[in-house]
Amino acid sequence: MANDIKAILFDFDDTLMQTKKIKVKAIKTLGLRYYNFDIPDELIDQHWGTPFSSFYENVFTSVDNDLDRILARREMINEEFRNQPYDDAKSVLTYLTSRYLVGIVTASSKKAVNAELAGVDLPIQQLHFIQTAEDTFYHKPDPRVFDPSIEKLSPKGIRRNEILYVGDSFQDYMAAVDAGLSFIGIANNTTPESAFKKRKIRFVKRLSDLKDIL
């Protein structure tokens, strides 16, 4: 695989950052503190991975129809639940950015991503670009979500089949493969390795394992 790959794109939440582990606590606190709403895990799982604003709108629709108010209250408690990268994210990005063009493709908003990256020790300046929710109307598993990134890489002479996407979910896999990209899953963050094995999807158990195959 390494000989064919010239660019690597990473999912952000639950691939580079421990988002679900940390943010579920924040979401549940938001529900209880402002709405006396004990949000079921099933409701969070149902909408997890959807675009940022859509997620909060759908989860809180039964208690508040004002999205701006929901997001403002989320901001008020955000500092209590600072997102953190996985322990090996820095070393992996440092290693890969010295060998490939590397970017991030995420459904999170630019504001949310910038806020979370501002407080962590990752080599962000070495990334070729970060594509956020504002850069496309499409979202995974729609393969067109990768169009802006492909357009950025095309002037470098990089074709679709020379791009690798690294993600944690089946939605990541479906979008990447349907777009003509290669894919490697990160198991056990949101998708167990048994599920990747069942579908015969290539995966690694830790981000650091990527250094052994790329």
Compact summary:
InterPro entries: HAD-like_hydrolase_sf (IPR050155), HAD-like_sf (IPR036412), HAD_2 (IPR041492), HAD_sf (IPR023214). The chain is α/β, with parallel strands linked by helices.
In one word, what is the shape? Answer: globular
Radius of gyration: 17 Å
CATH architecture of the largest domain: 3-Layer(aba) Sandwich
User: Which fold name is given in CATH as the topology of the largest domain?
Assistant: Rossmann fold
Stretches where pLDDT falls below 50 for ≥5 residues?
none
The H-level CATH homologous superfamily of the largest domain, spelled out, is HAD superfamily/HAD-like
Structural class: alpha/beta
